[in-house]
């Protein structure tokens, strides 16, 4: 199948026919066909084929066919041969999100991000739109989606079911539940690929990798830890983290430390401040944590790792991974995060600071920094491939929190199926911000069986 880009025009011609330039007809192997079947998402129309003398790849559709296909706009998109006398245009890329009753900011604080996705999707010669679970009309095979207009405002249009769905539901609450799972499953049953199925719990990834070679990069962890497990881990590793399984942004995390001559320490964040408490006895620490009252249910205890440091502050890295048009995992961006003084995590909201990985590696390793960073990139790709092998649903994007210890061993602390984008606030990652979403649309072309053109 050959992929090309074409410019679609709406024409006032009375004949209900598909008008194709000679160049486009050759690219899509339509020469000699009397009729052509045009597919857009789940819709299709068949009409006589008419060749027109026009340089370039042009497709002219009379208004009757524009209406029948529910074509959302004219202009540039991708086109591919779908067999003898058939062509597909699009792809229609549906971005699944939550909407609010606000005309200027229909997706709340994520509205500017959705605009960015729409603009990059158009640059990638696709037909992107945003929709919510309530917008799908399964009986009619249509979606009432939000389309970004050149003016920057949003307009609602009815289109066929999309060729591919990029799940960007913004929260665990919005993305969970039997009804949501069944909703997403309906796309899969209709042969419409949907990727980034749902948020991971912290234990999900540990479970997925347990029997994989990549497991060597995951710290020792225990779900719903007992007091005895916490004691044993502290004696073995000297410090551990307690993390809520469904948490994000570092909220609810405790760092516990054991020093034989000084006792036990708990470090956490409360009311916007970093808190440190010392306990003489282990039992006092457990009482504060409420282990006997079930307060550590839905928590994971994770081995502490002595990370590389700058100015006595630990450093970890956020790796933003995407699939590309060749269905391969690539490192789209890396942000280095330096912990704030006294902070339990490296999150910026807890006093952390964003740096470039090159800055960090030069300061810590000098001339060897580039080599060690490449080793971390290779490890991140292997981890993404391993998670994908064992995951039940399609993935197109992952975020890893990765650390390097004093022995240069690489560790993966967390994997996120809906990675945040705070690292892209760093000025040096502006082009990576764009490229990460361009990769997503290349992957959409692949997933929807429009073959991507970029090799990177």
From TrEMBL:
Top-level taxon: Bacteria
InterPro entries named in the record: YheC/D (IPR026838)
Pfam families the record matches: ATPgrasp_YheCD
Protein name per Swiss-Prot or TrEMBL: YheC/YheD family protein
């Amino acid at each position: 199948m050959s992929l090309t880009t074409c410019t679609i025009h709406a024409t006032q011609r009375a004949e209900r026919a598909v008008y194709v330039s000679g160049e486009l007809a050759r690219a899509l192997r339509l020469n000699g066909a009397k009729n052509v079947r045009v597919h857009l998402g789940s819709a299709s129309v068949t009409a006589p084929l008419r060749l027109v003398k026009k340089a370039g790849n042009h497709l002219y559709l009379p208004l009757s066919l524009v209406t029948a296909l529910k074509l959302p706009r004219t202009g540039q998109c991708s086109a591919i041969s779908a067999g003898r006398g058939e062509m597909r245009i699009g792809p229609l890329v549906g971005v699944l999100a939550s909407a609010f009753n606000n005309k200027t900011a229909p997706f709340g604080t994520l509205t500017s991000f959705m605009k960015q996705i729409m603009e990059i999707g158009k640059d990638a010669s696709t037909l992107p739109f945003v929709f919510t679970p309530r917008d799908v009309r399964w009986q009619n095979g249509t979606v009432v989606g939000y389309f970004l207009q050149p003016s920057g405002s949003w307009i609602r249009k009815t289109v066929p079911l999309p060729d591919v769905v990029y799940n960007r539901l913004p929260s665990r609450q919005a993305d969970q539940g039997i009804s949501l799972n069944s909703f997403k499953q309906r796309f899969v049953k209709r042969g419409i690929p949907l990727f980034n199925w749902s948020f991971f719990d912290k234990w999900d990834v540990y479970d997925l990798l347990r029997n994989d070679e990549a497991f060597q990069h995951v710290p020792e962890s225990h779900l719903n830890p007992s007091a005895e497990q916490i004691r044993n881990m502290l004696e073995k590793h000297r410090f551990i983290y307690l993390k809520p399984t469904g948490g994000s942004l570092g909220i609810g995390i405790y760092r516990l430390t054991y020093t034989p001559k000084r006792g036990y320490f708990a470090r956490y964040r409360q009311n916007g401040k970093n808190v440190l408490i010392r306990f003489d006895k282990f039992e006092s620490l457990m009482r504060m944590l409420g282990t006997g009252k079930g307060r550590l249910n839905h928590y994971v205890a994770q081995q502490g790792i002595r990370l590389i440091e700058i100015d006595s502050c630990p450093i970890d890295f956020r790796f933003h991974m995407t699939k590309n048009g060749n269905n391969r995992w690539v490192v789209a961006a890396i942000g280095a995060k330096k912990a704030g003084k006294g902070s339990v995590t490296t999150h910026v909201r807890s006093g952390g600071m964003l740096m470039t990985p090159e800055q960090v590696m030069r300061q810590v390793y000098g001339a060897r920094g580039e080599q060690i960073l490449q080793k971390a990139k290779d490890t991140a790709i292997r981890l993404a491939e391993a998670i994908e092998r064992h995951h039940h649903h399609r993935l197109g994007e992952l975020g890893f929190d990765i650390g390097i210890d004093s022995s240069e061993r690489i560790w993966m602390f967390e994997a996120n199926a809906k990675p945040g984008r705070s690292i892209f606030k760093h000025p040096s990652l502006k082009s990576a911000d764009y490229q990460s979403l361009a990769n997503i649309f290349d992957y959409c072309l692949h997933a929807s069986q429009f073959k991507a053109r970029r090799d990177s």
